[in-house]
């Protein structure tokens, strides 16, 4: 007997008047999989999640969440999923355990079950020692853990996380992802959006969407392997001027700012280092460093999304 997919979409379309927010998206997410859903602002990520959560209906296409139809069984889906948004939506004037009890009662848990689940969740999110603390007094990262705990009280088989670590420091983000891995080990399907490319590396697979369309799907390593050309990290005194000088130059596929340096993707087959040094020097930008590096997911993102912007214009 085949295991039912945690999330399933087939040719799903969502239109708002003349605007197509989601354009024939198809994908399948297995139980226990950590699935990253990436794309620029306005790409259709939140609209897709709202359809999967049973909040809005697709214009056409098919979708299921753990076997439940996103159109005809939307109310049943709401009771079987957890959802955590990027905006903190708990009550600051309640204590930690009071927020958990409130959300547990909303999910319809009995008094006995709720007491057990509050203790289980406090253990999972490592907040037993803060159960009596006022939510308003918690640091941002701790609040995010509490919000995740509230979404897990009813033991949903699938949880949707929309930018769950927005605004928290890198160490807190890593601790939060440890919790996500724990959920995956318990066969919870985790469907997550993030703008942090280093977080996307933690996902088992990634879907990249832009302008409502699915433009890439695979594991982080698969997506990076598919990227053609060679990536070089370049350090110059004026990064913005160097990017402008190389953009559109022969053999340069992309040039983009990466922190204090830049990444340049070149066609294969060139004497890349010499070519870059010569091109930069000719533009008045003497390079301090030119070294070939392995592609990152951010390189993939820049390449695929940038290509679609060029095609559109």
Walk me through this protein's architecture.
There is one protein chain. This protein has 313 residues and is α/β, with parallel strands linked by helices. The strands form three sheets. A six-stranded mixed beta sheet has the order 6-7-8-3-9-10, with helices on both faces. The protein has a four-stranded antiparallel beta sheet with strand order 2-1-4-5. The chain has a four-stranded antiparallel beta sheet with strand order 12-13-11-14, with helices on both faces. The longest helix has 16 residues. The N and C termini lie far apart (48 Å).
Question: How would you summarize the topology of this molecule?
Answer:
Layout (H helix, E strand, L loop, with lengths): L6 E10 L2 E11 L4 E5 L6 H8 L7 E6 L2 E2 L4 H5 L2 E4 L11 H11 L4 H14 L15 H13 L5 E5 L7 H16 L3 E5 L3 H4 L4 E6 L2 E6 L1 H7 L3 E6 L3 H8 L5 E7 L2 E6 L5 H11 L6 E5 L3 H16 L1
Parallel strand pairs: 3-8, 3-9, 6-7, 7-8
Antiparallel strand pairs: 1-2, 1-4, 4-5, 9-10, 11-13, 11-14, 12-13
Helix pairs in contact: 3-4, 3-5
The biggest beta sheet is recorded as: 6 strands, mixed
Q: List the secondary-structure elements in sequence, H or E.
A: EEEHEEHEHHHEHEHEEHEHEEHEH
Mean pLDDT: 89
CA(first)-CA(last) distance: 48 Å
Secondary structure class reads: alpha/beta
> Are there runs of 5+ residues with pLDDT below 50, and where?
308-313
Principal-axis shape equals globular
Please report which band the strand proportion falls in: under 5%, 5-15%, 15-25%, 25-35%, 35-45% or over 45%. Answer: 25-35%
